[in-house]
Amino acid sequence: MDVDQYMAELGRAARAASRKVAASSTATRNGALLATRDALDGARQSLAEANAEDLARGAASGLAAPLMDRLELTPARIDAMLEGLRQVANLPDPVGAITDMNTMPSGIQVGRMRVPLGVIGIIYESRPNVTVEAASLCLKSGNATILRGGSEALASNRAIAACLAEGLQAAGLPEAAIQVVNTADRAAVGRLITMPEYVDVIVPRGGKGLIERINADARVPVIKHLDGVCHVYIDDGADADMAVAIAVNAKTHRYGTCNTMETLLVAASAAAQLLPRLEQAYTAAGVELRGCDRTRAILPGAKVATEQDWREEYLAPILAVRVVGGIDEAIDHINTYSSLHTDSIVTRDHARAMRFLREVDSSSVMVNASTRFADGFEYGLGAEIGISTDKLHARGPVGLEGLTSQKYVVFGEGQVRT
Amino acid sequence: MDVDQYMAELGRAARAASRKVAASSTATRNGALLATRDALDGARQSLAEANAEDLARGAASGLAAPLMDRLELTPARIDAMLEGLRQVANLPDPVGAITDMNTMPSGIQVGRMRVPLGVIGIIYESRPNVTVEAASLCLKSGNATILRGGSEALASNRAIAACLAEGLQAAGLPEAAIQVVNTADRAAVGRLITMPEYVDVIVPRGGKGLIERINADARVPVIKHLDGVCHVYIDDGADADMAVAIAVNAKTHRYGTCNTMETLLVAASAAAQLLPRLEQAYTAAGVELRGCDRTRAILPGAKVATEQDWREEYLAPILAVRVVGGIDEAIDHINTYSSLHTDSIVTRDHARAMRFLREVDSSSVMVNASTRFADGFEYGLGAEIGISTDKLHARGPVGLEGLTSQKYVVFGEGQVRT
Asked: Which listed residue, of A114, A125, B94, B231, carries a Cα 20 to 30 Å from B22's Cα?
């Protein structure tokens, strides 16, 4: 069977299964999640063997160390998968809620019902634990899923798929509710993202390059996360201790995450006092500073920031620093260079706080908090399939609700239009 | 200046203006709408002259009669534009509302703020009144707009654009908040839909062909309305009078609208009693029936329905009729052939009503009401930019809320992530 035909088969089966999943009860879907948990727990041996196979293949083909690390299914990572399944089973079910019910002049009652999207395609790289995480969120939200993981993890994903099938079967749900693409052929991805008749949305998880390629070629809507060029702006008159604490945390808590600050903006009136304190803290943490001219007048040790630095997602211990005249310049800078991810103001001024919230066009805008809080768990979503930098449908951290839609429901008593 | 460059200029100006519009007060935006109303009222003479120019060009190039009709700006249509502007000014402003505010264990408060999308591109055909309608909805919801109407209406749209500019100016908003593409070059559309750096969403309004072309080529998200293959299912045991009233209204109230029923499904147990009554009513209205074998066994006068008939949006006095075993077959039929627009069940049975609502995967699902109610005004949205058959972002009738998004807002008191 060729790849096109194979993917169309998966699509057809997913579409049919999605109807069954959407109509299933919360208890049934939770049952499948917990049965999958038990199946994985019982399959530790076969998971380890499959993973060893992938790791051996990776080592033989010279896979880079960070990719080898992501590929590995350690006992602790399997424990985390089991715990994740338990947590998702315990989350409230978003499906079925009817809200915004109103009676219209015609007498009909109109409301909105939260419903699954249908079939979700997930495309990701070499982390096998994403298979369980993504599948569980899609199932909980009443959707069918087609998962396409990195070919490096093919054996691990097959072993996980067997456990997912066991869980679905135990709950009486169709196995096609969660399908793992069982081929390393790259054409499978091309087909998955161009069959809107079977797939309602694609969620790519991985590096910016992967996501840009998928977005360019997709004929199915994509919920995507591009880069996180996040800012902290220290306002005129901000509390100095708070400003330092937030600016240091936002940069140094973790370097490789999308909600890490990449550019610090400081009001001119605060720069002379704060920049030397900040430099000391950043130097202690090993962070390289790249500054504008006004920054370098205060911190001669900082390197020169170029235009490119304002656009850069370093994901590394490097920070671009710019002194701005005040909030207007700060908002201009952010709306010019930000990737629309997360930006924070440190201020004591209420009016400027509210202006920042309204006028900065990013998925998360914060007052007096570290950008590192932009995260589904910290926002109370209970889970996260990703952080969307899109403006449509789901924006910011995407939990179960982002995997659903709302349809209009109308209750009449025989009304006709006159 | 070439078209690419011209469109990029419009885009840049729109992006800059969108920030100003987003930050403007409700009163300012309403003021611009009412000033536009006055400007149009004062420009009736120049509107009539511009429109006469378009009509003469249309007549000379042999434009079809329905297109000539759409193109015409009668005094009554100008009155309707003025009234529309007044109504939009009176609608509640969706922008700025903060909802879902919760305090997290870390102490941060997280909520969602409703915000404009940014820049909206509208592509439509030869109705000049759409220029005012679409521009007013985009402005009210805090967005900048680039409008690209049919080239047949170029002179009329230029005259309207002058009034829109006057209205914006009177309110102190940038003129680039509403721009009308001032070239008949078709390459302008191609550019408009492929500049995500300047345009956040495209709303095409027009025939299915136009929308499919735009959707195929767009690199910007599209809020689209494809076809309306709507169903009424008359359930086992339905009230006969109600069933006939709804089935007749859903088909015959208007033939050319997207929420008109195109296929009638009748439970086998009700068919013998109801189909002859329905045939009588449809024949009186001049509706041609095309039935399945079981339908034709009861109504020998009906033509044969082919597979293609189940997929057809007739937009004409033709109706496909199918007898089904019951609700399972009805839901299967709808989920196979429906365009996900609007489907209604006529029933007395509560459990089947709720199953229909949950399991039919359409943007509007109804119980005991005519499909003709699927409309922004009947749903109380106050206005409508279109009816979305997409599942993401906006589904069903799209009002002002569909032209906005929600971002996360976080209020802290200096919290950092530990």
From this structure: A114
